User: Fold this.
Amino acid sequence: MNIAIAIVALGVLVLVHEAGHFFASLAVGLRPRKFYVGFPPPILRTRRNGIEYGIGMIPLGGFVSIPGMHRPIPHDAERRFSPAVAEAPALAGSLDRVARALAGDDLEGALERLDELEEALRDEKLSPDALSRAEKGLTELRDGLGPDAYWKAPTWKRLVAIAAGPAANVLLALVVFTVLFTMVGGPPSRVVAAVSEGLPAAAAGVLPGDRIVAIDGAPVTGTELGERVQASEGRELVLTIVRDGQEVTLAVTPELTDSGFRIGIVREGTGQPLPEAAQTSAKATGIISREIVKAIGGLLTAEGRENVASPIGITQASSDAIAQGKEQFLWVLGVISLSLALLNLLPLLPLDGGHILFTLIERARGRFLRREVYERASVVGLGIVLLLFLVGLTNDIGRLT
Assistant:
């Protein structure tokens, strides 16, 4: 059961990431064409205001399609329409005119040639596969040539649409940590959560659930309880405990440890007020983010590679955290959300950081990079991502066995 909850939680993190892209794109006028909960193929789908919403068959994460991520090139037309041309050679002329318009950067002309190609397609009898690919080609090319295509948008719109994915995961981590710190992080309570075997409290008969209300007859707060034990210097203390609604007195002699005098109890924590919890959440997010960046920077070392985990290891860690309690699970969930955000900001295509880097490069150059540059960079980036996945998978197999 814990594994199933962990898998769903990981899927939610991915869904939040994609939702960030989706809503930011809508906000800046880059209208996405699809938004799915889960991954296609769809189980259910509907269309509203030109956007296809659906539930995917693969019930993990989410999927968003932003039109025209790259400037169309002749190869895009040839790739989609070659099966139709093979079945109906009469289409070759129309396809060639589309390809020549794209090669000559005649975008308006390419749209007109597409209309001609669509008319020609209607006059041909094609197999379902060739027709389906041709229809997808018409949609993709029109999206890539349309006024709301991503590649044609101003730099700031492109940056907002892409950066919103990691930003959504950072925001989720802040919310998760804030909820966590409203549950823990405040001053210690007077309620005993656990008793350590072999230490004075256990020998005196203190039990989990006991509430220590006084020491030597003087009432104490949670903070004062620890201070009085430390100040005892090993002198016997008389604890007044409320147990099942009844007061019980027990004598206990604190024992000297490496951290001072202790009686061997773990107390339940208390939560912070919401404003304070939000401040603590922001501080924790900053600290954890710095540590994640350091860990990413250490991937070139053997020690750094040992810390890499695949989705299998992440799921296992989440499952273990669930077994330890909701507080531990929330902590791990927030850390994973931050990790997802920062890993996606690596300057590698096809990651978000790669798109941000290439957008800034094009802005500095004042002109678009050739499609071949994008494709070669994507091959390198994908290779690095797959290598990290294999390293993480190997680590996880080793840890599990």
Summary: Strands lie at 34-48, 51-65, 192-195, 211-215, 218-219, 237-243, 246-252, 255-257, 260-262, 265-267. The mean pLDDT is 86. DSSP finds 14 helices and ten strands in the chain.
